[in-house]
């Protein structure tokens, strides 16, 4: 079994794995449109974490990490991920393309919080999303720490990729940390 990490799974796996590959899936965009009341926010004051949304461009790419799970660990890892991704995420099967072009594409599982789930917050102006991320905190920590860790992980693992949504939010949240208001952004 293979699992695709495009958010916190990129730096915090917490499960046994056999192998990992850097690469991408096609036809999606990574967006901070999923509410989090269980990790990066609380009930009534959700944080925002990433989900994948279908793109109108079938060639759009989301880069991340594919993890191979040993057969004997599939059941345990699936239970763990189903619990970890419980706030509105569903499993889907997609094709993963390793960055090492000599490797063949892999069919794998992703967890997506689509528009039908109750925690889906959807699009909003970036400054509003940034303010919500800056102000939110939950049992797993500050929401802006999640954003900064994701941005740093992308820069480290896939340095030649520019994720505009992610990096623009990072800039805006850093401005909030420096005392700017929405009108000053």
Descriptive account of the structure:
Helices cover 27% and strands 31% of the residues. The protein is α+β, with helices and mostly antiparallel strands and 185 residues long. The protein has one domain (2-178): Gamma-glutamyl cyclotransferase-like (Hypothetical upf0131 protein ytfp, Roll), CATH 3.10.490.10. The chain has a five-stranded antiparallel beta sheet with strand order 1-5-2-6-7, with no helix packed on it. Helix 2 (126-135) crosses helix 4 (164-177) and helix 3 crosses helix 4. It is globular, with a radius of gyration of 16 Å. The termini are far apart.
Strand-residue fraction?
25-35%
Widest sheet, order of strands: 1-5-2-6-7
CATH 4th-level superfamily: Gamma-glutamyl cyclotransferase-like
The first-level CATH class is given as Alpha Beta
- The structure class reads alpha+beta
Order of helices and strands: EEEEEHEEHEEHH
How are the SSEs placed, and which strands pair?
Blueprint: E1 2-5, E2 19-26, E3 28-36, E4 47-54, E5 61-68, H1 74-84, E6 90-98, E7 106-112, H2 126-135, E8 137-138, E9 141-142, H3 143-157, H4 164-177
Antiparallel strand pairs: 1-5, 2-5, 2-6, 3-4, 6-7, 8-9
Keywords:
alpha+beta; Hypothetical upf0131 protein ytfp; five-stranded antiparallel β-sheet; 4 helices
Short description:
The chain is of the alpha+beta class and 185 residues long.
